[in-house]
Specification:
Number of helices: 10
CATH architecture of the largest domain: 3-Layer(aba) Sandwich
Strand order of the largest sheet: 1-11-8-7-5-6
Radius of gyration: 19 Å
Distance between the termini: 47 Å
Strand content: 15-25%
CATH class of the largest domain: Alpha Beta
Order of helices and strands: EHEHEHEHHHEHEHEEEEHEH
Largest sheet: 6 strands, parallel
CATH topology of the largest domain: Rossmann fold
Structural class: alpha/beta
Number of strands: 11
């Protein structure tokens, strides 16, 4: 059972970006800039934005966080989004989800300029992804998963790929990206029946349910590839665990991602990769 080391592969991506930014700086050109919108005081959201800001600084990208109070309204957020859309200094930006309940998330996401949408969450970018349009910006987590499989030379062509979780952030765009690579894709949601029978046929299983330790060995076929997108607290110990019961599945998959150190670092690295592509395509 080989570990899919997202920490190692993500660092390679970040090192490459760092070299690129160094050359941009040496040539006297404008440095790429990533803005982040954070609304409220959710602990997880503050932590994730902090990690993204830290990574941006480490690779030499300019990072700016717009931290809005919890009591702002939808229009306040949209006004900020529109100012970033117009700014010549901003190459790309992201809105940390989830937004507070009183804010209309769909309206906010609809107002993002698709060419600056580093998270790939606008309807335009998601639509382009399904149309196999190369100009689409894919969400960072699915892109990170594809890059991780690619780094370990894991083929998706003709493989049975099962994705648990049909969110617009992970499951649905990942299904589009797997289809583009000619995989046979089954996308499961919370109403899917007989999930174990479906997962048992998976050559590649990607779990993004948010249910800690859901996946046991009887969900898996021998020598499958397991990608764990989950990031949950262990119900008893409080430690960070994924959707997959690491101890229980030992010896069954051929490859597996750890939690932490698997998909998480790849997501942040691919956010920076998307930003660099926005910078190059912006032609400013």
């Amino acid at each position: 059972m080989e570990i899919l080391d997202g920490k190692n592969i993500s660092q390679r991506i970040l090192d490459s970006i760092s070299d690129e930014v160094r050359n941009i700086r040496k040539d006297g050109k404008r440095i790429p800039r990533l803005d982040m919108i954070l609304v409220g005081d959710d602990y997880g959201s503050i932590k994730y934005v902090g990690m993204k800001e830290k990574t941006a600084i480490e690779v030499g990208i300019e990072g700016k966080v717009h931290h809005l109070d919890n009591d702002v309204n939808t229009l306040d957020v949209i006004n900020l989004v529109e100012s970033l859309n117009k700014s010549e200094e901003v190459d790309g930006y992201m809105i940390q989800l989830p937004l507070p309940e009183h804010i209309n998330t769909n309206l906010v996401l609809d107002s993002i300029a698709p060419q600056k949408d580093v998270d790939g969450l606008t309807p335009t970018n998601l639509g382009k992804l399904f149309q196999k349009d190369k100009s689409s910006i894919p969400p960072a987590t699915p892109l990170g998963i594809m890059k991780l499989l690619e780094a370990y030379n894991i083929k998706t062509f003709g493989k049975n790929v099962v994705i648990l979780g049909a969110s617009n952030i992970v499951g649905t765009p990942l299904a589009a990206m797997m289809l583009e690579k000619n995989a046979t894709v089954t996308l499961c949601n919370s109403h899917t029946v007989d999930i174990q029978n479906i997962t048992k046929n998976a050559d590649i299983l990607i779990s993004a349910t948010g249910n800690p330790l859901l996946i046991k060995k009887h969900y898996l076929k021998d020598d499958c590839v397991v990608v764990d997108v989950g990031s949950n607290k262990h119900p008893e110990t409080g430690k960070l665990v994924g959707d997959v019961d690491w101890q229980d599945v030992q010896g069954v998959p051929s490859y597996i991602t750890p939690v932490p150190g698997g998909v998480g670092p790849m997501t942040i690295a691919c956010l920076m990769l998307n930003l660099m592509n926005c910078y190059k395509n912006g032609k400013r």
